[in-house]
């Protein structure tokens, strides 16, 4: 077994540094084929990192074929012929050097990689691979066992009474919205959306030929007065954690909205994408749970609470739409992987889901707290923070007339990536620029470093 010379710094996640170091040792032939590597535990001890960190690095090298694992013997460098060493193109070199300059990336849309329950998930995958069902296309509405587990979860966490028969699984929220739009287009021609709001949903409605009616989001969420004045009978809304402002629609407005849908004979599309992560109060019951026979189509995803790359989402369809769905999509195959669906069902059945959610809520609560207090400390009253009670990102508004693009560029020059929100507004922009900072995949140290660098950039 060879000692590995790996120097770690604080500028990027440690598992990435370990992965890149071993990979270049192999590519430069400093590590010869068939060389035995230290075990996960030994390497973690040598480098003073957690075992999870070295495990993730080895998993990546394994997946890319740089190393192999031999039962009871450990990890070895793969033989030369089987390693796919690519010569980087100029473009790739450029993007790598740009990547290296980034010290902290406040990207939303990821999850805490180190907290991923690898062991439990792997165990469930191994079990599931012995089941005949995962070698087939699977049921059109999605794996029945997973639909049962989702129905239980919705009752316990969101107060929704439904059954597996009303649930349709899909590979993403946008894919489900696309199918839904095809159904709804039979009867409706326009749709109201929140402004600002989720551009991913708006694009789907536009592509499907709906006329878009933007409705302002105010302090209490969607402006009901504006909604009641327009002709749309459909509305797409994120009531529990408005995207992107973080507002929760109060109960009076919820009731008003439900009554509106009844009186219009229309539908509310309720996107409940990250309701698991409320840090101050209990989760708020979903719209669908408030009224019997509510005219609500409920949509949610595993992307935020579990893993975006799993590509698993689901919707609960009212009976009228369910019949239409089964007729119109009778020849369509299910779009989500049967392996992932059944694995998630087993994961939930074994109780791993509930403990994962509890753990992640505590982890993200801490990260949110560190981000908010570091920003307050660094910027004082110059900055307004929006949406700090829930979710995996916050919005920040600097009381300065400097434009969004310039603020992003200034941050980039200090090695920090922050994200725009102007793409989420239709027809107007806020007086002062608002930027989006995701924190889920950053460590506490990275969050603190990121805020320090932002202070350098902007003050
Ligand atoms: C409001 C909202 N809904 C849904 C999603 C994504 O869901 P999925 O990964 O299932 O497409 C996002 C992604 O950021 C979102 O912001």
Describe this protein with a few key phrases.
459 residues, alpha/beta, Arc Repressor Mutant, subunit A, Aspartate Aminotransferase, domain 1, Aspartate Aminotransferase, domain 2, 8-stranded mixed β-sheet, 4-stranded antiparallel β-sheet, 16 helices, globular, binds pyridoxal-5'-phosphate
User: What kind of sheet is the major sheet?
Assistant: 8 strands, mixed
Stated plainly, the CATH topology of the largest domain is called Aspartate Aminotransferase, domain 2
Q: How many distinct beta strands?
A: 16
Residue windows where pLDDT falls under 50 for at least 5 positions: 82-94
**Assembly state of the chains shown:** single chain
Q: Which CATH architecture of the largest domain?
A: 3-Layer(aba) Sandwich
The total number of structural domains is: 3
Q: Averaged pLDDT, please?
A: 92
Tell me the CATH superfamily of the largest domain: Type I PLP-dependent aspartate aminotransferase-like (Major domain)
Counted by DSSP, the helix tally is 16
> What is the CATH C level class of the largest domain, in words?
Alpha Beta
Short description:
The protein is α/β, with parallel strands linked by helices and 459 residues long. It is built from 16 helices and 16 strands. 36% of the residues are buried.
Could you characterize what this model shows?
The protein has three domains: 14-77, Arc Repressor Mutant, subunit A, CATH 1.10.10.10; 97-113 and 356-458, Alpha-Beta Complex (Aspartate Aminotransferase, domain 1), CATH 3.90.1150; 117-350, Type I PLP-dependent aspartate aminotransferase-like (Major domain) (Aspartate Aminotransferase, domain 2), CATH 3.40.640. The strands form four sheets. It has an eight-stranded mixed sheet. It is of the alpha/beta class. It has helices at residues 14-27, 40-47, 51-63, 90-101, 118-128, 144-158, 173-184, 199-207, 224-229, 251-264, 287-290, 319-328, 338-349, 352-379, 404-413, 444-458; strands at 67-70, 74-77, 104-105, 167-170, 190-195, 211-218, 221-222, 234-237, 267-271, 296-301, 313-316, 383-386, 393-398, 416-417, 419-420, 434-438. The model is unreliable at 82-94 (pLDDT under 50). Pyridoxal-5'-phosphate (PLP) binds at residues 109, 172-174, 198, 200, 238, 243, 271, 273, 301, 303, 308, 313.
